[in-house]
Amino acid sequence: DGGITQSPKYLFRKEGQNVTLSCEQNLNHDAMYWYRQDPGQGLRLIYYSQIVNDFQKGDIAEGYSVSREKKESFPLTVTSAQKNPTAFYLCASSMGQNQPQHFGDGTRLSIL
Amino acid sequence: SQQGEEDPQALSIQEGENATMNCSYKTSINNLQWYRQNSGRGLVHLILIRSNEREKHSGRLRVTLDTSKKSSSLLITASRAADTASYFCATDASAGNMLTFGGGTRLMVKP
């Protein structure tokens, strides 16, 4: 079955620690996206990548970093510079223009 | 900033009734998409309507788009308890399929 896999489902971060969220897709999609969702809110775009080895900042990129070394993978690092990282993080992919996005089941990040 | 804003923020209805959710946006768009999210899960795509389309149907779902008023509506007919979820509209106004999401409508369907 094709889809997007996010791991882990739950993640805890200590003060001053960087943590990395995994996102893997086997849909052969070129474009991948990371969103942040706060309780009772919509999604906000953190980073996106249209093609391997290229990515762009979204609306709230500060305190986050990404890489896109393989078409299938788009990991997100939440750095210690992100002072309010507690949120639900969603990864998505799409075939391109005028196509829907397919989402993973998210990673919930909390602060210890 | 959020391009799309849903109305109402919350809606509670009985099973069998119809549910209507509205979305307003601010700029010209390529398309508008509706997604569903069950609690604690990822989003599931429901319908994509392009800027040159006025209405689309999918099963019990009907979406309309009025680009002159910059608004869209999602109608769920003959609702079921399993339709209980949050529903989001998202607009694509970019060259790169980047979506801007509204705050969502939380729908509760009581059995």
Q: Can you tell me the overall shape of chain B?
A: globular
Helix and strand element order of chain B: EEEEEEEEEEE
Count every helix of chain A, treating DSSP H or I runs of 4 or more residues as helices: 0
Radius of gyration of chain B: 13 Å
Query: What kind of sheet is the major sheet of chain B?
Result: 6 strands, mixed
Oligomer: heterodimer
Give the helix level of chain A as a range of percent: under 10%
Strand content of chain A: over 45%
**From the helix content, strand content and strand pairing of chain A, which structural class follows?**
mainly beta
What is the percent of helical residues of chain B? Answer: under 10%
> What form of chain A results from the Cα inertia axes?
globular
Number of helices of chain B: 0
Notes on the protein architecture:
The complex is a heterodimer of chains A (112) and B (111). With 112 residues, chain A is mainly β. Chain A is built from no helices and eleven strands. At the A-B interface, strand 4, strand 5, strand 9 and strand 10 of A face strand 4, strand 5, strand 9 and strand 10 of B.
Features:
heterodimer; A: 112 residues; mainly beta; 7-stranded mixed beta sheet; 4-stranded antiparallel beta sheet; 11 strands; 0% helix; B: 111 residues; 5-stranded antiparallel beta sheet; globular
